[in-house]
């Protein structure tokens, strides 16, 4: 059982009334320097500020609405989207080096996550994240933006020569229809002041539930043995001297017992190889506690984070079979349940190796 850690960062920024000059905006990235590992964006989550020594502005965007038909009928939600039609707020966010470069570094340093994937950018703004994903090798990116900035996004995408990869859709996530039934990745810079200001999180969750709950793709990566939370369980032994076609499909039960109190984010699968006809038994393991091989390990992420206590057991089964349309792909079904002091869950999850 592997425990895969993740972090979430927040940022605040002031607002500017400056405008971009013209519509031909090209984002440069190849020659830009990356953020140092000791960047101050990892400082304390909350700090006290002496008003006498520093004036902190936390006001809303400086947006003026002039008289127009139907203005009295507008709600706060309408003004929210209108505020993001102005270039100034986007310029301020783009100039936030910590914010923009961190997203860029995360995407570019993990291109394996984006290559040949379909990506949905929720609240695309200027489309900068969509462009990053496209340059990281995404098969296609759908950039959804509700404000009038969406009209400018199309010109930005065209100027960067990515019109064949990035499609800009204008509208609210809750109202639009995507040209595809499901996407592989959802990316969004949804955080507001005090993290939750602007209430965009619900929009991201809506998109997740509508377009991302398809068959998940396992991640092939090296897992730190310190992240292993449970014992291991042998699923199947394959003797190729005796196997017949079809034996690669199987269903096997498992029982994983926690060796400490911890959180569980994923199952980790690997295999051992033995040369049994030698005078002396020889072989190797591809497990996380052995020397790394190019096979690495296969990480099956869980939909929920499980809280487990030492001695508690996750009971379940794994079903493995070649995909019917493409026999070289592998379909995986995992049934698992935990009835512990801090967590009770029972789920079935599907994965596809492709």
Automatic annotation (TrEMBL):
<dbReference type="InterPro" id="IPR055135">
    <property type="entry name" value="PRMT_dom"/>
</dbReference>
<keyword id="KW-0808">Transferase</keyword>
<dbReference type="GO" id="GO:0032259">
    <property type="term" value="P:methylation"/>
</dbReference>
<dbReference type="GO" id="GO:0005634">
    <property type="term" value="C:nucleus"/>
</dbReference>
<dbReference type="GO" id="GO:0016274">
    <property type="term" value="F:protein-arginine N-methyltransferase activity"/>
</dbReference>
<dbReference type="GO" id="GO:0042054">
    <property type="term" value="F:histone methyltransferase activity"/>
</dbReference>
<feature type="region of interest" description="Disordered">
    <location>
        <begin position="1"/>
        <end position="23"/>
    </location>
</feature>
<dbReference type="InterPro" id="IPR025799">
    <property type="entry name" value="Arg_MeTrfase"/>
</dbReference>
<dbReference type="Pfam" id="PF22528">
    <property type="entry name" value="PRMT_C"/>
</dbReference>
<feature type="domain" description="Methyltransferase">
    <location>
        <begin position="119"/>
        <end position="191"/>
    </location>
</feature>
<keyword id="KW-0949">S-adenosyl-L-methionine</keyword>
<dbReference type="InterPro" id="IPR029063">
    <property type="entry name" value="SAM-dependent_MTases_sf"/>
</dbReference>
<feature type="domain" description="Protein arginine N-methyltransferase">
    <location>
        <begin position="214"/>
        <end position="339"/>
    </location>
</feature>
<feature type="compositionally biased region" description="Low complexity">
    <location>
        <begin position="1"/>
        <end position="19"/>
    </location>
</feature>
<dbReference type="Pfam" id="PF13649">
    <property type="entry name" value="Methyltransf_25"/>
</dbReference>
<keyword id="KW-0489">Methyltransferase</keyword>
<keyword id="KW-0539">Nucleus</keyword>
<dbReference type="InterPro" id="IPR041698">
    <property type="entry name" value="Methyltransf_25"/>
</dbReference>
<protein>
    <recommendedName>
        <fullName>Methyltransferase domain-containing protein</fullName>
    </recommendedName>
</protein>
């Amino acid at each position: 059982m592997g425990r895969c850690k993740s972090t979430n960062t927040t940022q605040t920024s002031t607002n500017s009334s400056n405008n971009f000059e013209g519509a031909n905006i090209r984002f440069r990235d190849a020659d830009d320097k990356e953020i140092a590992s000791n960047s101050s964006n990892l400082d304390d989550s909350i700090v006290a500020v002496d008003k006498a020594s520093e004036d902190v502005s936390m006001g809303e965007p400086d947006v003026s609405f002039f008289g127009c038909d139907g203005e009295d009928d507008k709600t706060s939600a309408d003004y929210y989207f209108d505020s993001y039609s102005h270039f100034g707020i986007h310029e301020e966010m783009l100039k936030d080096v910590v914010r923009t470069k961190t997203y860029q570094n995360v995407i570019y340093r993990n291109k394996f996550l984006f290559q040949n994937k379909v990506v949905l950018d929720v609240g695309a703004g200027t489309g900068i994240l969509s462009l990053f994903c496209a340059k990281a090798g995404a098969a296609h990116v759908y950039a959804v933006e509700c404000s009038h900035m969406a009209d400018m996004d199309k010109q930005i995408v065209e100027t960067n020569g990515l019109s064949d990869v990035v499609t800009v859709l204008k509208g609210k996530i809750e109202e639009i229809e995507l040209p595809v039934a499901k996407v592989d990745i959802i990316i969004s810079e949804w955080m507001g002041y005090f993290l939750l200001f602007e209430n965009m999180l619900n929009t991201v969750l809506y998109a997740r539930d509508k377009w991302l709950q398809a068959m998940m793709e396992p991640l092939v990566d090296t897992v730190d043995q310190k992240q292993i939370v449970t014992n291991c369980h042998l699923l199947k032994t394959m003797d190729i001297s005796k196997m017949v076609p079809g034996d690669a499909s199987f269903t096997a039960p498992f029982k994983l017992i926690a060796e400490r109190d911890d959180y569980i984010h994923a199952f980790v699968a690997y295999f051992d190889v033995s040369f049994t006809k030698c005078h002396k038994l020889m072989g190797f393991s591809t497990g996380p506690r052995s020397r790394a091989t190019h096979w690495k390990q296969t990480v099956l992420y869980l939909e929920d984070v499980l809280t487990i206590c030492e001695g508690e057991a996750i009971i379940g089964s794994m079903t493995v079979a070649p995909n019917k349309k493409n026999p070289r792909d592998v379909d995986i079904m995992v049934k698992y349940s935990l009835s512990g002091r801090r967590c009770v869950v029972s789920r079935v999850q599907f994965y596809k190796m492709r």
